[in-house]
Amino acid sequence: MSIFLAGAGPDPQAFPGIFDRFADDVRRHAGPGRTPRVAVAVHPGGGSLQDILEACAGPLRTRLGGAIVAVPLAAGSPADPTAFSGADGVVVGGGLTPAYWEGLRPAAAAVSRLVAGGTPYLGFSAGAMVAPRRALIGGYRINGVEVCGEECGEGLDAVDVRDGLGLVPFALDVHAAQAGTLSRAVGAVAAGLVERMVAIDEGTAVVLEAAGAGDYRVIGSGNCWDIRQTGGTAAVSVSVRAAG
What we know:
By secondary structure, the protein is an alpha/beta fold.
């Protein structure tokens, strides 16, 4: 089964393909004659929890007709690991990445076990960023120097890398070309914060066939920017991969 990591929030009008492919994987994982059950973790941020949940779950409900299990994340009320038990798919929504990281920490091992066992995972924006073993959580300065706009820092000053869900061996950034976070991704690798970073454009996703897989496919309308250390101090290579 697959891990889908999208470079923006859920938008079934602009990017229906990611919902179609994830729903197909969930259906296969559930097996014939079984109603799929999908756990959807969302944080309200400054908006409505119900609206954010519906943005993630509505397109899947239409495609699967199965049960949606809401896993609300809120300050001081992190996810209960048992909420993911028996899920045929896991979805993590978009919003403030530090809030998703905090809310999912107690359930990280439970989610990792599910995905390692073949349960499909779909992360939108923040849900993609928290998926790696070492996850970029936010920030806009490295060594005191701005590497992207402050509005992309998500309330953090210094670029911050923490232990994530452990699903992906490379770190991720999102909204790459559109928000200018590609420079943050390059800066993080050049500074040695991570060895490899994949920056994903909006309307685009990377798809890994299994937890821990080092390679990926690209789907959608944009590019993915694969940044790696090349052995020298502050030396990096950047390759561009489009959908194909």
